[in-house]
Amino acid sequence: MSLETPVRGDAKNSLVDTLKTLAVLFKARIVFLLVMASLGGAFLGAGGLPSLGDMLLLIVSGALAAGGSSAINQIIERDTDTRMGRTEDRPVASGRIAQIPMVWLLSIAMIVVPVMLIVPFNAPMAFYLFAGAAIYIGVYTIWLKPRSVLNIVIGGAAGSAAVMTGGAAVGAASDPGVIILALLVFLWTPAHFWALALYYKDDYAAAQTPMLPVIASEGQTAWWIFIHAAGTAFATLVLAAHPALGLFYLIPVALVTLFMLGWGMRLIRTPSRQHAIRLFVATNVFLLMVFVLIILTTTGRQLFL
Hints:
Layout (H helix, E strand, L loop, with lengths): L14 H11 L2 H19 L5 H25 L1 H4 L9 H4 L5 H19 L4 H22 L6 H5 L1 H13 L6 H24 L1 H6 L5 H4 L2 H21 L8 H23 L3 H32 L1
Helix pairs in contact: 2-3, 2-9, 2-10, 2-15, 3-6, 3-7, 3-9, 6-7, 7-9, 9-10, 10-13, 10-15, 13-14, 14-15
């Protein structure tokens, strides 16, 4: 049974179109970043290269749970998505996917099955894996997003749960570095998302979603973004004190951090949509580089020092 309803002529049977639809439904880009967050937690907690089994389990379970959560998010928000230019073409909102009950069932299974399989031999990992999905769906999507300007602030804990899942996968959920990395992601999330929300301010206003740029002025939003970016920068640099990181991590990550803060300062000076979207891109690059540097540094120190 196809997930797609006929949309246009020959395209209904196109494998490429189907893959694109699924990539949007399961938010492949976000899933990739969350998997990288979990790997960052695992490499940092292990102080180097985790076992192949731990990495495969982490990647597969994390991708499934994050993808399932993303699909449920789109089902719940399908009416809101139709009122926003950025999201009106999403598969559920646009009607390209009509089998909603099947998507519900598949998405729930993508979360529950990995959690249940992991519980018997790594309960902490299963807990954080489930917590990430529960926070994103229950706390953020259903409760806070339509009601409170703090939606993305508290909802950012879902990303932190990915880091903790990685730490727990290698038995290091209590490692101070893993906890600081989780805090880093928590602080990063509002700065990252508010920059995007500032660019799409009119969309969120039309959807009556109380994102910070809808409630506050552009100048106030820019300052709140920078405050969170500065907190993120502090946590990023503190991580260098971890025995598995040090100067090999500190020097390049300091440059990436300055890159992000520089765009934050530009937004304060000129709180425009153009600067907001550039800061959004900068925050994406920053976080990905933090995870890559953690993975490379911990592995390099383990192999060569």
